[in-house]
Amino acid sequence: MKEKVIIKRLEEVIYKGRLLNIPIKEDHIVKKSIEVFGDDEPCIIHQSFVIKEILTNLLELFKDKDIIKGKDYIEGLSFLNYEEIESISLELVRKK
């Protein structure tokens, strides 16, 4: 996943970089690993698989848009390791 994303809280950039490196809550990774693999102490292979699955779901939110607002996708963005999801926005930087 080479996509890049910009995460802002109001107008302040709080993350800018590769989608693969966005901050994800550790407990969300473990929860997803339990769902998929029955593994509550996921190895790096299970962690990588789960993270890619989470990010694939995130990319689906961007299907027809470049910016998504946290207030519209609170549940879908709950994996992000940020407080007050409703006050952030994510912009997918598409290659031209």
Question: Can you give me a brief rundown of this structure?
Answer:
By secondary structure, this protein is of the alpha+beta class. The chain has one domain. The protein contains 2 helices and 4 strands.
End-to-end C-alpha gap: 16 Å
Strand order of the largest sheet: 2-1-4-3
Residue ranges: pLDDT <50 for 5 or more in a row? Answer: none
The overall pLDDT average reads 94
| Computed structural class | alpha+beta
Rg over alpha carbons = 13 Å
What form results from the Cα inertia axes? globular
SSE order, as H and E? EEHHEE
Topology, element by element:
Elements: E1 4-9, E2 12-18, H1 26-37, H2 44-61, E3 67-69, E4 88-93
Antiparallel strand pairs: 1-2, 1-4, 3-4
Question: Key terms for this structure?
Answer:
96 residues, 4-stranded antiparallel sheet, 2 helices, 4 strands, 23% strand
Structure description:
By secondary structure, the chain is α+β, with helices and mostly antiparallel strands. The protein has one domain. It has 2 helices and 4 strands; from the N terminus they run ββααββ. The chain has helices at 26-37, 44-61; strands at residues 4-9, 12-18, 67-69, 88-93. A hairpin with a 2-residue loop joins strand 1 and strand 2. Helix 1 packs across helix 2 (44-61).
